[in-house]
Amino acid sequence: MRPSGRKLDEMRPISIETDVTRHAEGSCLIRCGDTHVICTATLEERVPPWLRNKGQGWVTAEYGMLPRATHTRMQREAKRGQSGRTQEIQRLIGRSLRACVDRNALGERQISVDCDVIQADGGTRCASITGGWVALRLAIDKLMKAGDIVTDPLTDHVAAVSCGLYAGQQVLDLDYPEDSEAGVDGNFVLTGSGRMIEVQMSAEGATFDRDQLTGLLDLASKGVSELVVAQKAATGR
Description:
The strands form 2 sheets. A 5-stranded mixed sheet has the order 1-2-3-5-4. It has a 4-stranded antiparallel sheet with strand order 7-6-8-9, sandwiched between helices. The mean pLDDT is about 95. The protein is built from 6 helices and 9 strands. Strand 1 (about 15-20) and strand 2 (about 25-30) form a beta hairpin. The chain has a single domain, classed as GHMP Kinase, N-terminal domain (Ribosomal Protein S5, domain 2, 2-Layer Sandwich). The protein has helices at about 75-80, 85-100, 105, 125-145, 175-180, 210-235, and strands at about 15-20, 25-30, 35-45, 60-65, 110-120, 160-165, 170, 185-190, 195-205. The termini are far apart. It is an alpha+beta fold. The longest helix is centred in the C-terminal third of the chain and has 26 residues, at about 210-235. Homohexameric ring arranged as a trimer of dimers. It catalyses: tRNA(n+1) + phosphate = tRNA(n) + a ribonucleoside 5'-diphosphate. It comes from Palleronia aestuarii. This is Ribonuclease PH. Keywords: Nucleotidyltransferase, RNA-binding, rRNA processing, Transferase, tRNA processing, tRNA-binding.
């Protein structure tokens, strides 16, 4: 039995509320159970120096957690410096979103996706990727509506979910009690069409074999398909 009482292949309740901030070109609040993340997309008519005059755009991401997103207060990273974990996660988010962006179609502009965790209960990087795609989709929709771009630069949906071995069983969408006790856990970033962008798997107190990896990937595919349904409901596409 999972601590939450969910079935082995059952996702936490998912909701995505759009346009939650006034100023960002795209924004949403994604809730994956008790993990809540605000994602905003900011459009800038510029690119990094190494991309200037190449006719290509850029998508990047930043990630952070509010001091009381967890059980105890964390010191703000603005005060103590950015941790290696934060840097790794925001690079993952950026890579994941860029995987389904036609940068030529985007043109010479940058979209920065900020993911701020306001409450954490496991799977914050996965929720950030899933919600980050929604914010990105909304920002690009505004570009297209304004006629600034003609061809849609987003080639597919992108979503992510965690899976792992908990109490010897393969489970989908780990919450914190499961994540902290899992013998194996992983994060799977997939496209809406089922292609893989990134898989992060780690053994922590246990090992896993090829068949178990395949089983976890099957679970991840099921979870991502449900997340894509939520993305489509939120954005209308």
